Amino acid sequence: MTSNLQLCNYTFPKGFAWGASTAAYQIEGGWDADGKGPNVWDTFTHQGGDRVFKNQTGDVACGSYTLWEEDLKCIKQLGLTHYRFSLSWSRLLPDGTTGFINQKGIDYYNKVIDDLLTNGIMPMVTLNHFDLPQALEDQGGWLSENIVGFFNKYAEFCFNTFGNRVKMWITINEPSIVAKYAYENGLHAPGIKESGTGAYQTAHNMIKAHAKAWHTYHLLFKEKQHGFVSLALNANWAEPLDPTSEADVKATERYLAFSLGWFAKPIFIDGDYPPLMKSSVAAKSKEQGYPSSRLPEFTKEEMQMIKGTADFFCLNYYTTRKIRHQEYAQARPSFQADEEVEEIKDPSWPISSIEWLAVVPWGIRKLLKHIKDTCNDPIIYITENGFAQSDPAPLEDAQRWEYFRQTLLEILKGIYIDKANVKGYFVWSLMDNFEWTEGYSKRFGLFHVDYNSSSLPRVPYTSASEYAKVVSSNRLPEPEKKLK
Ligand code: BGC
Q1: Which listed site, 26, 114, 134, 292, has its alpha carbon 20 to 30 Å from 84?
Q2: Assigned domain for 408 exists
Q3: In whole angstroms, what is the distance from residue 118 CA to residue 136 CA?
Q4: What is the tens place of the pLDDT at every residue in 129-188?
Q5: CATH number for the domain harbouring residue 273
């Protein structure tokens, strides 16, 4: 094992993409500046109700709408080859439709894209990272099938406006999080609780919206613009709590089917949901007296339309779980009761300062292999990976860098030993930012942001200088300890 890596001298493949990621609502601020329309996170945070830490909002965030040049300095300081950011849909189209186009929004993103390119940095652009325009939410949001058409028009507008310069597109960020948190348990904006149906309906529309946008690109723009389109899927790696228990082994397969497989199988393989997911939801729905499964079905034409609609695989990896079979006796149907798993963090895994984020670097290698094996050996970009510190966070974050280093080492093993086709790695996040329900209490940045100072200064953590060394040399410093 070791020898393969030594052979490669801990060097990443030539042309490896080194990036960092952000998302519009988490960094931009300027929530109502220059004609921007409200999105669901503006509404959600403004309603208060202690759903977000200290009722904090993204109204100002890192101020990137006016401080883009400061962000650019950070990106240059790291020497990144790529920068991933998202477009605020309601900054460009205030009511979500092309009925009114906000030129100021176009100007802002034009500047970001042009500045990146002038500095030799490739933009990777996400069309929608959790912040649906409120006007579209008012018409049913992701729960309504109408969103497929709205999203397609928005995507077409973006390809048309920015596609002469942007070559890497991500349609939707982490559809499973939106499905489960925004429309099933209501913890995220818009806070809808439709237990047992919300997540499935949302995902169904998101998959169709993604696929339609992919076709629009390939039909109308690909020939001229030569870009690539995918979506970003988050996934935990998972292993049975008791590998000798058949129930736990099956539960682990179910867990993977209900997370990564839910989206990856239709999009990368055959246009349809994993059989384990279909059978579980159908069985529970029947027991509950539903006339048909709560998991919607794709028509034959839709399956045709969906399969193969990703030009590369975008993986957001943070953590791993041990899985135990668990039945939930609940009065009402729910995603959790359909899935029948209990997620467990092994006590030996360090916890970063965010409760769900157990640090398991080896999990990424297993996941890369799983994606290679189950998704037709795609080109993979790791579009997010990171570790949170709590506030206040020390600038010297040697422990956190150690987590990054171990993760990068596992990625090298994935590349050279397992032959996963990994082409890039993006840290979440370029700088500390609004961490959704955690507000500003958790810090994921390579750069520290001082929210108490009106100029919102960005200062590098130790991890930033260490990452810059890796980026510039395209290799990891050789570990001192012997590899296992
Ligand atoms: C999301 C980011 C988020 C990060 C850390 C990902 O799920 O895409 O927006 O900040 O994880 O929680």
Answers
A1: 134
A2: yes
A3: 35
A4: 999 999 999 999 999 999 999 999 999 999 999 999 999 999 999 999 999 999 999 999
A5: 3.20.20.80
Output the six-digit token pair for 476.
Answer: 């990891």
Q: How far is the CA of 291 from the centre of ligand 1 (A)?
A: 37
CA 174 to ligand 1 center in whole angstroms = 9
Residue 480 lies in a domain: no
Q: For a substitution probing ligand 1, which of 39, 428, 438 has the most ligand atoms within 8 Å of its CB?
A: 428
DSSP strand pairing (380-384 vs 422-428)? parallel
- pTM value is 0.97
Which helix (H) or strand (E) covers residue 373, if one does?
Answer: helix 361-374
Name the DSSP letter for residue 129: S
Task: Select from 116, 68, 72, 109 the least CA-distant residue to 91.
Answer: 109
259 in contact with ligand 1, CB cutoff 6 A: no
Return the amino acid letter for 380.
I
Sign of CA dihedral 325, 330, 335, 336: negative
**Ligand 1 pocket, residue 435 CB under 6 Å:** yes
| Structural domain harbouring 395 | 3-473
> Computed from CA positions of residues 66, 70, 234, 239, in that sequence, does the dihedral angle turn out positive or negative?
negative
Domain-embedded: residue 366: yes
Tell me the catalytic residues. 384
Note whether 213 and 151 are within 8 A (CB): yes
**Calpha distance 114→109 (Å, rounded):** 8
Q: Kindly report, residue by residue over 90-136, the tens digit of the pLDDT.
A: 999 999 999 999 999 999 999 999 999 999 999 999 999 999 999 99
Report the separation in Å between the CA atom of 329 and the middle of ligand 1, taken as the mean of its atom positions. 31
**pLDDT confidence of residue 484:** 44
CA of residue 274 relative to chain centroid, distance: 21
Residues linked to residue 228 through DSSP beta bridges, in sequence order = 168
Note the pLDDT of residue 478: 78
Q: Name 231's Cβ contacts closer than 8 Å, sequence gap at least 6.
A: 170, 171, 172, 173, 175, 210, 263, 267, 310, 314
- Closest atom, ligand 1, to C-alpha of 130: 9
Q: For residue range 341-367, what is the model confidence (pLDDT) as tens digits?
A: 999 999 999 999 999 999 999 999 999
Specify if 479 maps to a domain.
no
Comparing CA positions, the residue from 316, 44, 71 lying closest to residue 173 is: 316
Distance set, CA 422 to CA 37, 58, 208, 337, 372 (Å): 38, 33, 26, 35, 10
CB distance 316 to ligand 1 below 6 Å: yes
Overall domain count for the chain? 1
CB 384 less than 6 A from any atom of ligand 1: yes
Longest dimension (CA), the chain: 62
Q: Is the pLDDT of residue 414 over 70?
A: yes
Cis omega before residue 175 (within 30°)? no
